[in-house]
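User: structure tokens for this one?
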Amino acid sequence: MRQLTALDAQFLHAESATTAAHVAGVAILDPAWAPAGAVTREALIELLRGRLHLAPALGLRLAGVPFGLDHPYWTEAAGLDVADHVYETTLPLPGNEAQLAEAVARIHERRLDRGRPLWEMHLIQGLTGGRVALYAKVHHCAVDGVSGAETLAALLDLTPEPRVVEPPASPAATAAPGPATMLAAAVTRSVAHPARALRSLGRMAADLDAIPLAGALPGARAVAAAARMIRGRTGELPELPSLSVPRTPFNGPISAERRFSYGSIPLAEVRRIAKTFGISVNDVVMTLCAAALRSWLRERDALPDQPLVAAVPVAVRAPGVQETVGNRLSVMIVPMPTDVSSPLDRLRITGRTMRTAKRRFAGSPATWLSELPSMLPAAVTALATSTVFRLASIVLPPINLIVSNVPGPQLPLYLCGARVLAYYPMSVLTDVSGGVNITCFSYDGSLNFGILACPDRVEDVWRLMGHLQEAMDELTELAGPRPARETEIEAVPA
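Assistant:
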């Protein structure tokens, strides 16, 4: 039996009338490679039926504990028919990128039915150039960015000809315990909770200066240093910069509506910029995002005179261990130099800031993201999370936004015989994390950006994507001449 961790359950509890906590992505497909020159719902259903055992998260549903006294369990979805999770629609003419973005934003707004396995796929026909889009979403309690990519990879092939996948010799059943066993386990966990909470508090104390809001408290750095010494972490760690969060239009209560924009940057050009200035690809991504956010805020006379603060998720899965259900995440909280006008200075400051954050994380891996949800009993957390998130967004937001970069394969892949041209990720918006989320996924020579926003906070999400293009132009010019065949970011305004 597999029970949700406190972090997994947190993604369930974060859902509200204005928050849908699933991760998703939009794959753009070229059906010319497919055997029949088309991608159909029937072909997708057949593919899913043959490979469902390779994507465990898709075959499970939640089993709640009576009275909500403990975190739910995963159990096999008996009699699952994948056809019930696959939908098809056609865009109206002309079928451009703006229409696709609007269509997937509407789908992304809708929460998943917790009585079924927590996923859906939507095949979207009618895109210009004869292309097809596939929007897929899975609840964040079941996957994180890495395991979500692994789940999608189970459906993909290296050639237009689908590989032969053998069925499992003896399927491993995942069954939740009965109600009486659940209640007994919940009582046992409740009795032991104070001791567990104290242990979590002790572990969190070592990261106190890296936790949003807590890090600004008087004496936070001294307490964290003392806790690390007690726990045997005696190595010298770099001092973190101030993580004071400025007020921006991005922050505050969000609505249930979503807007989406997307575009691609040549990965080779990003690597060239990174090599020229002695920084990493992810540092370039963070610089691009800082520049785009700065430009958007300046247009609205809303640019703070201090850096924005971003949460950057970090996968913490053990090397060689494939866990395709659940979250194994930590996070780095970093300032973004949105207050710096010079593109070159922004690039250099971002490089220094990210190096400091990475050295700090390597020397003292932050565990507070998974420890914090463990501090309160499961029943209390379930009732209080969405309310606490709402209040925090009004009183004192802990961050301005989330920026995430997920590495992907650098070779062409195929789905139902159709070539995957690009994959644009979509993530979660909550009251506490801000009304805009920027996620990047590398694939087959491109960095694919997906920007998700609440229109109450960011009314023109395509403009933000346009500022990313401008930022890329700036860095390209700074890096000097490039091969003529390199292309710019592809972004289509609404």
